Amino acid sequence: MAVAREALDRLVRDVQDFPEPGIVFKDIMPLLADHDGFRAVVLALAESGRDESGEVVVDKVIGMEARGFLVGAPVALALGAGFAPVRKAGKLPGPTHAVSYDLEYGTATLELHEDAVTPGDRVLLVDDVLATGGTARATADLVRRCGGTVVGVAVLMELGFLAGRDRLGDLAVDSLAVV
Ligand code: AMP
For the chain, percent helix, then strand, then coil, each to nearest 5? Predict the structure, then answer.
């Protein structure tokens, strides 16, 4: 965990006023480009899919578009779990469930294939940043519509000043860093 935190401190770049004025964008591309750093954060996130004895307690990992794909898929592999993407409206080819939600900047609709989660699946949500919590909340709704149970949310960073976890009710939120 200490290695993962150090990697986040060193390899996540703050980009001022992106994608619009007033937003400090957390750019994880330097982290992804560093094998040791990327590996450390993936293994640390995967801990959220295990119980105290180290046993895997999730069947599926869901990553939210788009950087949730980049961190969620390797977390799924590390856990021996399946992976499914939650995508913006109109991107998934099959029948989907859809939920509209608020972003830190703008609004959007997210979709999940109806058959991406099997009823009874235990699901871990993975993303790079938890901001207002709207994306994670909408994704949790989508999982429940499929009949799955959300085990928790695991993110690299939580923007503490936005208090996103307060919008997630009883959902367990693990963040490697609060920034
Ligand atoms: P939210 O729904 O407000 O919690 O926003 C989380 C989603 O928006 C995640 O998928 C993030 O990738 C993205 N996001 C929000 N704020 C930022 C930020 N400051 N830097 C990078 N990504 C962000």
Answer: 35, 35, 30
